[in-house]
Amino acid sequence: MKHFNSATIWGRIKDLNIRHTKKKKLLYADLQIYCPSNQHGDVLVFGRLWGAKKAENLNKLYLSNPLTVFKFKGMFTQFKDRDITYTGFNLFNFEVSDEQRMRTVFILVGECKGKRDGDNKEGIIILNVKTGGDGTYREDNSTFEIFMENSEIEGLHVGDIIECKGIVEDKDAYFGSSIAFKPYAHKLLIKKQAIENEIF
C-alpha cells in the first residue's frame, strides 16, 4: 500500500531568513511560523520553503505586512539532536490566507514499527514512511515519532499500515521551546493489517 506524507500550516511568519549557496545562488527560506491557538497552545513551527522565486515572493509579502496569515503546503519532517526529537517541515507552496484559525496539521500513511511509552500517559508510535521515487520527488525513507494516548494505540501491531491524522500541539505551554511542540495523532486508521501481527 502506498505511503503518504502531507502537512499544512496556517500561521504568521515570526522570522524569515534567505539562504544562499557559496556562489550567492538563492536556495530556500528558513522560516519560523507562529500558530497560536486556544485549543492547541502557542505553537511555533520551523519550516524551509524551497525555490528561489517562491522564497523571494514570500519575503516581499512578509515585509509588506508582517501580520499576514499564510497557508503553507509541504511535508512533515523530524530530526534528532542529543536524544531530543524535533519536528519541522519541508514546504513547497504557499498562499495568502484569510483563515483566522491558525494551526499545523499533518497526514501520514506508513508502517508501524513499534511504540514506546512517553510522559503523562502518552504513547509514542514509531512510523516508517517511504515516499517519492516516482519521478515527482526524490525517494525519502523517514521514521517518525507520533504521540497519542496509550489507550488509543493498544490495538496496533508491528507491520500494520496505518494512517495518522494529527496536529502539532504545545501541551506543555512552554512558549518558545521547540521541545514542547509535539505531533499528536487525533485520528488513527489501520489501512492494512500485518500478515503476522506482533503484539506490543
Question: How would you summarize the topology of this molecule?
Answer:
Layout lengths: L3 E17 L5 E12 L3 E10 L1 H13 L4 E13 L2 E13 L6 E15 L4 E10 L8 E10 L7 E2 L2 E9 L12 E11 L5 E2 L1
Parallel strand pairs: 3-5
Antiparallel strand pairs: 1-2, 1-4, 1-6, 2-3, 4-5, 6-7, 6-10, 7-8, 9-12, 10-11
Structure description:
The protein has one helix spanning 52-64, and strands spanning 4-20, 26-37, 41-50, 69-81, 84-96, 103-117, 122-131, 140-149, 157-158, 161-169, 182-192, 198-199. The protein is mainly β. The protein has one domain (4-199): OB fold (Dihydrolipoamide Acetyltransferase, E2P) (Beta Barrel), CATH 2.40.50. The strands form two sheets. Strands 1-2-3-5-4 form a five-stranded mixed β-barrel. The protein starts with a strand and ends with a strand.
